[in-house]
């Protein structure tokens, strides 16, 4: 069938720490290089084929310096054949120059690329989390009221020019249908190569909502714009994570989980690790009669350099 681009295999991406959640929100959020390494390897053990990686300073602040990534990247690469995906989103408070540095330095198989500018509402989390060890955590959330995650056409071109020559392919982060049209625009200009790995993001305030109709709307729009030239994946922010993953898997899509995207294992239950979420989504996938993709199958499906 048209949707058999995955040959029935579902790629699980795991985003282990990110730059959105802060240490006081969950004792299980990996912060130190040691924690990022162990959470990453456990996630691969559980079935993740791709690791989406960010770095943090010892107090948990997002760290987008190549040095920060040097603390865990070599060890992860030595210990697993999982596909390494380095963020170019960093923290939405950073400049694109700062954000692209680790991917430019390490020339990974995959790097994230955010396909449009948007409001990035983190402050509603202040209703859920009251106590913070560090002042920067509250500022990080409150400041998002006036935060624009900037990804202009020039910024996107800059990341493409900086990374494409290294053989790096992209996880195109699309938070709304406009971002799919931006990707189509760059495809028309021949600046991106098919198959496009589209990571559609649901339920982040400022982007499209988490309703099943929103998921269908993004899928239909991507099908219309890209036909067979894209590989679809979804991430649901927070408590929407598993429901959206289940819907997408049933539709032939791939999925992303991990503590970057949600701190939860279930209603009001903090996930003890990203691997817990990988195990849960894997069970959903296998109960749908589908199989998960190995890292090499993911490379095959996404056309990566390996
Ligand atoms: C919603 C996610 N934080 C999207 C993301 O992972 C962005 C990036 O790292 O480039
Ligand atoms: Zn990320």
TrEMBL record:
Q: Which InterPro entries match?
A: Aldolase_TIM, BKACE
Q: Does the keyword Zinc apply?
A: yes
Q: Which residues cross the membrane?
A: none
> Which of the seven top EC classes does this enzyme belong to?
transferase
What Enzyme Commission number does this protein have? Answer: 2.-.-.-
The keyword Transferase is annotated on this UniProt entry? yes
Highest taxon listed in the record's lineage:
Bacteria
Q: Which cofactor does it need?
A: Zn(2+)
Provide the protein name. Answer: 3-keto-5-aminohexanoate cleavage enzyme
One annotated GO molecular function is: metal ion binding
Q: Name one Pfam family in it.
A: BKACE
The region annotated as signal peptide is none
Write out the entry's keywords from A to Z: Metal-binding, Transferase, Zinc
